[in-house]
């Protein structure tokens, strides 16, 4: 007979209800040490291996030199990477995608500030065929005029739609005010740029200088069999003539501080995007400020969420974060609120920042944040594919695996006094660039 376990057990004549007692929480101990190996393939290309036993699935990340930092003309980096899979000298876009479907594979593309990346998923039996196809895409991309025209049409339509959204307008305005028009992160594409700058000549130039000759890192995770490794070595498309980097655009732009309101007629909501320059990932205080950021607005139970969403009902969500980008640290707060409540929302944000600086955080609240962040860290190392994402950051920022151990230790050891100290040291509301887009 099937028996249902009771919710209650008797212990020395006392009834104990497990449903009323939360399980004990233990902070993550040590992070798993990745089984990371490196093989130098020649021509300045390094193959990183993150093997996972008993799997035939693989993930292959190919890193190229060209990124947003090399955008001499708006849209070039993203357009080049997007159009590489839309046809080669021998294959149409339909043939490429049909082949990927046949092999049970798919591609993801990412253009970051310092690099561009192809991520390829598949299984070991089809690796050689998939890798030959990837080589064809990377070395023989045709940049067909018809595909370029279709891409331009789609992007212009997408941008037209996005420019009607207050959130997009606030994000773009912040980028221009913070980075400046002469910096790749502030020189954003406009509708006319797709017609004026995006053409086959600019795409082929970017591809030839920074992609075709720009492969420098390969990360193989999951199945790392000798068969796959030997195939990578045999089908060599690493060019001895290395990429001709354009180099970073140096900008001495000083962020425009204070509040800027941008009128968006008939807008129902007002978008707020505010931020300031802080420390980047290589700074010893970075992990401590991530704790402060999470407590303020980095998870669903944060102070900003409780104040502006739960208590005031002004927004569906608000968040903040500290990012390391372009050798800078950028702390930002983002939300969309009721159109007539943006001033109140800004006052609430000011209040919560000042409260962190003047009042000690309750121990149980800080412990909740620690639990959340330590749990996130453990999840980020769950499996070789996740570890490949972590390796990406380390390789591109010239860090080692000890970074994560030190990061976790900082989370565990930060005290309520420390939180108040870091908040006072780094959070100055007067240093913020604040953009509000709405309708008065």
Quick structural summary:
With about 450 residues, the chain is of the alpha+beta class. The protein folds into two domains: about 35-235, Metalloenzyme, LuxS/M16 peptidase-like (Cytochrome Bc1 Complex, Chain A, domain 1), CATH 3.30.830; about 260-440, 2-Layer Sandwich (Cytochrome Bc1 Complex, Chain A, domain 1).
Helix content: 40-55%
CATH topology of the largest domain: Cytochrome Bc1 Complex, Chain A, domain 1
List segments where confidence is low: pLDDT < 50 over at least 5 consecutive residues.
1-16
Q: Please tell me what the overall shape is.
A: globular
Q: What is the string of helix and strand elements?
A: EEEEEHHEEHHHHHEHEEHHEEHHHHHE
Radius of gyration, rounded?
25 Å
Distance between the termini: 69 Å
The CATH superfamily of the largest domain is identified as: Metalloenzyme, LuxS/M16 peptidase-like
**Sheet with most strands:** 6 strands, mixed
Q: How many β strands by DSSP?
A: 13
Query: What is the correct CATH architecture of the largest domain?
Result: 2-Layer Sandwich
Number of domains: 2
Overall average residue pLDDT: 89
Q: Which class of secondary structure composition applies to the elements?
A: alpha+beta
Strand content: 15-25%
Strand order of the largest sheet: 3-4-8-5-7-6
Description:
The protein has 440 residues and is of the alpha+beta class. The chain has 15 helices and 13 strands. The chain has two domains: 37-234, Metalloenzyme, LuxS/M16 peptidase-like (Cytochrome Bc1 Complex, Chain A, domain 1, 2-Layer Sandwich), CATH 3.30.830.10; 258-438, Cytochrome Bc1 Complex, Chain A, domain 1, CATH 3.30.830.10. Helices cover 42% and strands 21% of the residues. The protein has a six-stranded mixed beta sheet, with helices on both faces. A five-stranded mixed beta sheet has the order 9-13-10-12-11, with helices on both faces.
């Amino acid at each position: 007979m099937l028996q249902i376990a009771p919710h209650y057990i008797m212990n020395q004549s006392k009834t104990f209800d497990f449903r009323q007692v939360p399980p004990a929480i233990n902070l993550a101990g040590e992070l798993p040490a990745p089984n990371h190996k490196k093989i130098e393939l020649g021509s300045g290309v390094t193959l990183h291996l993150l093997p996972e036993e008993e799997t035939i699935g693989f993930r292959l990340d190919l890193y190229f030199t060209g990124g947003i930092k090399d955008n001499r003309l708006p849209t070039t980096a993203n357009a080049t990477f997007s159009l590489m899979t839309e046809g080669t000298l021998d294959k149409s876009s339909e043939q490429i995608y049909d082949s990927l479907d046949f092999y049970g594979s798919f591609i993801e593309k990412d253009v970051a500030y310092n690099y561009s990346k192809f991520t390829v998923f598949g299984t070991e039996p089809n690796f050689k065929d998939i890798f030959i196809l990837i080589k064809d895409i990377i070395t023989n991309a045709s940049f067909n005029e018809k595909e370029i025209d279709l891409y331009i049409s789609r992007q212009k339509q997408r941008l037209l739609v996005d420019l009607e959204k207050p959130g997009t307008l606030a994000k773009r305005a912040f980028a221009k005010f913070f980075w400046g028009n002469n910096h790749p992160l502030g020189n954003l594409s406009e509708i006319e740029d797709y017609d004026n700058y995006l053409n086959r000549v600019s795409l082929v130039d970017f591809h030839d200088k920074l992609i075709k000759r720009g492969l420098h890192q390969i990360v193989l995770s999951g199945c790392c069999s000798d068969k796959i490794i030997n195939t990578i070595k045999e089908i060599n498309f690493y060019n001895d003539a290395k990429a001709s980097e354009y180099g970073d655009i140096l900008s001495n732009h000083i962020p425009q501080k204070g509040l800027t309101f941008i009128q968006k007629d008939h807008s129902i909501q007002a978008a707020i995007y505010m931020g300031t320059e802080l420390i980047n990932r290589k700074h010893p205080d970075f992990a401590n400020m991530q704790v402060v950021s999470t407590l303020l607005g980095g998870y669903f139970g944060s102070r900003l969420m409780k104040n502006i969403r739960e208590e005031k009902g002004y927004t569906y969500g608000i968040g903040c974060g500290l990012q390391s980008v372009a050798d800078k640290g950028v702390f930002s707060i983002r939300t969309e609120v009721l159109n007539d409540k943006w001033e109140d929302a800004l006052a609430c944000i000011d209040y919560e920042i000042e409260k962190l600086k003047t009042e000690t955080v309750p121990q149980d609240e800080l412990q909740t944040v620690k639990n959340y962040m330590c749990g996130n860290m453990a999840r980020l190392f769950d499996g070789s594919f996740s570890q490949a994402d972590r390796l990406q950051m380390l390789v591109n920022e010239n860090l080692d695996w000890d970074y994560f151990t030190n990061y976790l230790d900082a989370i565990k050891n930060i005290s309520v006094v420390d939180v108040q100290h870091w908040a006072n040291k780094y959070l100055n509301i007067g240093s913020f660039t604040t953009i509000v887009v709405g309708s008065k």
